[in-house]
């Protein structure tokens, strides 16, 4: 321990697994014999056998206290204070620190050291926990040895219904390595409890959801996005309608963390897609206290309320990515959140020109919520690559497609009013004789995703309270 | 023992509290569970009579043996049918 460190003299920290340490063993023996050197060994207590009084530091306590990063490290103390330190083998430095000339005459001039054991992934976290240096503020919950820890998490209501990864201190510390942000930074207040979302609390939920540390910046951006006032997260949660937050990811981060924008992009099987969307839902559940049949009043909900996150397929697209369309500079990673539900397929295997295909899209879009409902809700149209190709080959920009779809979604009010088509559902009599659009201006969003084969695009419908009076999509840059 | 970090806003205690005892039994259904300890049935039967005299709904259940936890189906049945359970724990 630290009290055993010398007031004056040298300390060396070594491990047998390091060839440079093995190389310096005779030098360490020489210095130890002259007195004034303590050698701490990290892995094998019998190393170095040149030093009789070597000290076992396989628990790594001294290494951690001395903040060793490289072995061998040689440190010089005077009056109990460190006055010099060198890493690896460097004859000049070792001679300077020891004050002894001609060290290791048969050794090369210098050799770089190896990584120290106390800073290996996993080990460093355990040492920080042992020395109470984590800085983590969250309450610790001890699960008894006889208790099943997975059942304990279910019993506490932390789960969305599926098993969780245990949020141990080690895992949360590693998760927090994924961001440079202060763990105590508050990103906003999570409804319905309006509890503060600290980076630390979000990291705990990200661990439980199955995230890797490198996903955390995307999770943080998604949480920031849903907590913006204009997204109206409380209402999105509390509504009896189907919706939940849908997360669309753009930019370089997609490929860096291995997100899926290709085949089955909206389906199962990709860890990043699945865990990021799930982490967001767990944040709402655990930090915000938003649970089904409590403040979440959804009649049916939708399977996307477990997780609903995918990447846009930007590569090979002639269209600007959704994030760029929404004001983010090209290449910058960003997330966009949309209050959406389910997926309504648009199957069109015969259209070969953009006019026919856009009419096909529009007729399908007009069915969202109810064919009698207009304006109905915002919608996200996910165009598959084979459908996109038809627009690309004809030179249609995304702006052109928005414009055409908007025009094609004009509906005669006579078809919409209550009672028309023999359906009691419908709009007010004032719609009669007018033309009514299915969507508010700006109420459509288009992204490109999916496998290379298949003429199957998708519509993700929105909340009836879409738009400024309810929920607006929000885009946030992903910060490291 | 394993230590976890609390993912919640920490508004509830770490040790989950027991459900509060009802202040009155009126309108509730009482389950009487005989765990098969000797003469428990006599005591519990009399208790059931006294409750019934007060106009309280009573349902009787019995464990097959006092040496093992109640079978799952019995536990689920009791949880679904009654509000409060009384059982005799000793001879």
Q: How many domains, in number, for the residues of chain A?
A: 2
Q: Into which percentage range does the β-strand content of chain A fall?
A: 15-25%
Annotation field: number of helices of chain A: 15
Shape of chain A: elongated
Task: Give a short overview.
The complex is a heterodimer of chains A (480) and B (91). Chain A has helices spanning 19-34, 61-65, 91-98, 123-130, 149-155, 169-176, 199-209, 216-226, 233-238, 253-256, 271-287, 322-325, 354-365, 385-393, 398-408; strands at 9-14, 37-41, 55-56, 70-71, 73-78, 81-87, 89-90, 110-111, 114-115, 140-143, 186-190, 195-198, 244-250, 309-311, 334-347, 379-383, 410-412, 435-437, 444-448, 456-462, 474-477.
How does this structure look, described?
The complex is a heterodimer of chains A (about 475) and B (about 90). Chain A is of the alpha+beta class and about 475 residues long. Chain A has two domains: about 1-130, 3-Layer(aba) Sandwich (Glutaredoxin); about 150-475, no CATH class. In chain A, a hairpin with a 4-residue loop joins strand 11 and strand 12 (about 195-200). Helix content of chain A is about 30%, strand content about 20%. In chain A, the strands form six sheets. In chain A, strands 13, 14, 15, 16, 19, 20 and 21 form a seven-stranded mixed sheet that branches. In chain A, strands 3-2-1-5-6 form a five-stranded mixed sheet, covered by helices on one side. Chain B has a domain at about 30-85. In chain B, about 25% of the residues lie in helices and about 20% in strands. A three-stranded parallel sheet of chain B has the order 3-2-4, with helices on both faces. In chain B, helix 1 links the parallel strand 2 and strand 3 (about 55-60). The longest helix of chain B has 14 residues, at about 40-55. The model of chain B has no long low-confidence stretch (mean pLDDT about 90). Chains A and B meet through strand 10, helix 5, helix 7 and helix 11 of A and strand 1 of B.
